[in-house]
Amino acid sequence: MIAATASPTIGRRGGRETGPDNSARLAAAAAVSLTIAGAAGAVALVTAYQRAEWGQDGAFTWFWAGMLIFSLPAAWWAVRRGSSARLRLAVLIGYACFTFLPKLLRNPAGPLYHDEYAHWGQAHDILLDGVLFQQNPIVRVIGDYPGLHATVASLATLTGLTVWHTALFVLIVAHVLVTLGVAVLAAQLWPDARIAAAAAIVYSLNSSYLYFDTQLGYESLAIGVLVWALACAMRAIRAGTPGARLGWSALTVLLTVAITATHHLTAIWLTGMLCLIALSSSFFRVPARTAWTLTAISGASVGLWMASVSPRTGRYLEPYLGRALDQFGGMAGSGSGGRTLFSQSVAPWWEQYAAYAAPGCAALATAGAAVLWWQRRHTAEPVTKAASAAMLLLGALYFPATLLILTPSGAEGARRSWAFSYLGIALAAAPLIIALLDRSHRRISVSGALLLAGCGLVMIGNTAAGMNPSYRFPGPPVFGSDTRASTPEVLAAAEWLRETHGRGARLVADRYSGLIFGSYGEQEPTTGSESFPAYQLYIARPGSPMPESLMRQLRDWRFEYLVVDRRMAEQVPEIKIYFENNEPIPHDGRPGFTRAQLTKFDTMPWLIKVYDGPHIAIYRFDFDRAGQPIRTGAR
Known about the structure:
Helix content is 61%, strand content 4%. By secondary structure, the protein is mainly alpha-helical. The chain folds into two domains: 3-7 and 20-472, no CATH class; 482-625, 3-Layer(aba) Sandwich (Rossmann fold).
C-alpha cells in the first residue's frame, strides 16, 4: 500500500541504492532491535501498572520509559533514508500494535471506560436479541449508529468468541488501519514513503491515539474508515481516466456511508474535510468537480441519516458547544465559568509541563509547515498544493479547540476534536520533518535528535492533556471515576437485580451506578437531563414534596426502581459529576448531598426497599401509594 506510491528514491541512502544483502541486514537489525525494545517496553508498562495498582511511586516514569524505549527507535527506523518500503510498512504495523498495548493491558477482560460500558452492552444486546437500533440507557444516541456494534456482534457469532474479545480484535485491526491509512493518505500528496511514515508517526502523537481511540467506542472504528475514505477520495481526484475516477469515487461513497452508520461526529468531520479540499482546489484552480461531488454526497448522507434515523443527534451534540461558548463568554466577561487544568491531579510536574508545551510544539510545526508550503508553492504539483493547503487549514482548527478545554462543557468536545484536527497537522508537518532530516547526511543528526525528543515530549504532553491518570492507570476503587466504578458491591447489586427481577427494567441511578446496572446488570438506567430531571429525587430535602411533573414522568414512563449510592453524602466524585454535565448540584470540594437526603427514601410510602448493602440501596416504585403521608420511621 505504502510502497505503491513511493518514489524511486525509496530504498536509497546517500544517493546510492541499497543492495539486497544490505537491505536484508537492515531488516534483520531493525527486527532484532525493535523486538528487544518492544519486550523491554512491555515489561516497563506492566511494571508501571503494577506499581500504580499497589499504590507505589514511579508508575508514570516506568510507563513513559516503556513507551519511549520502543516508540522512538521505531520512529527512527520508519523515516530512515536506508529503510525499504517493506521495512517501513513492517515498522508501522509493529508501532501500531505496540501503541495498542497500554489500553490492552489496562483492561484486557472487560469494559472500563464510560462509553465502553455503553458500546459493550449495545453489542451484547444485538448478539442476544438480533435487533439493531435499540435504545441505549447509558449514551442515548449510540443505538442509532450500529456500525460498530453490528460488526462486533456478527464476528462474535461467527467465531464463537465473547463480545469483549471480539471487540478487542476489531479495535486492534482498526488501530493498525488508522496508522497505515495516514501513511497512505500522505503518500497521495507526496510520493515519498519517508514523508508518509513521518505523517503516521506525527498523527500518533495526538491525545486520543493511545487511549481514547483504542477504547470500545464508535469513533475508534470510524476514524480509521475516515482516513481510508480520504485516501480513496484523493485517488479519485487524481484519477486520469473516467473509469478509475468512478471506481475510486464509488469506494469513497461506500466508506462514507459506513462512517455515517457508525459515528455522527466522524461523519461530520469527513464532510468538513472533503469540503476543505474542494474549497482549496477551487481557490487554486485545480479541477474540483470530483471533490465537490464527494462533499455533497457525504453531506447528504449525514443529513439524511440524522433526519430519518437519528433526529435526536442534533439535540445531543448542541449543548456541548452551546454551553461551552456561554462559559467561555463568562470567563472573558466576569472571569467565572472556567476550570483549572490539572486541579488536584496526581500527574508529575514534568507531565503537566509537557501538556502545556505540546500545543506550542504543534504551533511551531504548523508554522514551519506553512512557511515550507509557501516556499514550494510554485514548484509543487497542483493537487498536492491544494490538498496540503487544506490540511494546513484543518490543522489550524486544533488551536482554538485548545481554548475550549478551559470550560467544563467544552473540555470533552475539545478533546474529541483533536483526533481529527491533528490529522491536518500530521500531513502538513511531515514534509517539514523530512526536509529538516535531509539537511544532514549523518545517520543521527542534531535535527534528528531534536525531532525525536520533540516527539517524546508531544506524546507525553498530549496524552496527559487527553486522559486523567485514573483513566490511564489502575488503582483502588475511587468514587466518581468512570474507570473505577466497577466495585464488587455495585457489581453484586446489579447481578442480584438481574437474577431476581430480570433484565430491561427502567431505573433511576447516579452516573457510576448507572454504568454497571446498564451494562453488566442489563437494565435501562437514567441519570437525568434538563427535560427529565430525575436527580431531583436525590436533591429534595427530607419532608419536602417531590415535583409533581417529575412524579408524573416517572409513572408515565414506567420506571420501576431507584438506586441510591450513599457515598454521594460522604465523598466528592473525582470527575466532579454526580449524574450528568451541567447538573444543578454544587461542586465546591464538599459532598453534594447530606446523609438525610439519601436516607429519606426509607420513609417514602411510594418506595419499597428491596435491596440494602453497605452503600448501595435499591427501592421499588409503588406510585399507587404516592398520596399517602410520609412515615415517621425508616423501614
